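Quick one: structure tokens for this chain, please?
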Amino acid sequence: DEAYNGNLVPIFAKFTPGMSDKDKIVIMVEALCEKMTYNDGSPEVADIPRVGGPDVWASDAPVVKGICDDYAVGFAYMCDYAGIPCMVCTSMYPDGVTGHAWNLVYADAQWFVVDPSGLDVMIDSGMSFETARNNPDTYIFSTEQNYSSTGLKDDKTNEKLIIEALYKDVFGK
């Protein structure tokens, strides 16, 4: 964690023995959303530094800005650090022009979609973390089937099967 100025230590210190992967993910997503704000190009975010991927944690700035792939890569790094299998997914919306990045996470022996930037946009708009946790539209733990209804799909079937097999082989779950 030295390369990241110790910024991950207080986040992972919140993990307790026996805590579910889902609970760990909530802690990590909320920490990421507290550290980042979505770069929507507005004057309100103009002076906030843009930092991508895992370097969000190396920044001394209290808040940095990024776009969906910055959130997805930063979150995947956190999951890797926590020992939770995670993949970054990207896809185009049906309009074929705009795209999005999010994560597939293997938590508690099930695949979940985690969309940190989608959550942060809602938090930046005034939604509380508590409300977000209970709102399926935030896609914190939405199933892939629910998420694909937005028109976004993952193409990671083979990778998911390999990760599941390795995870079950190593951890027995």
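The helical segments are 9-12, 21-35, 68-82, 116-124, 129-133, 144-148, 157-171.
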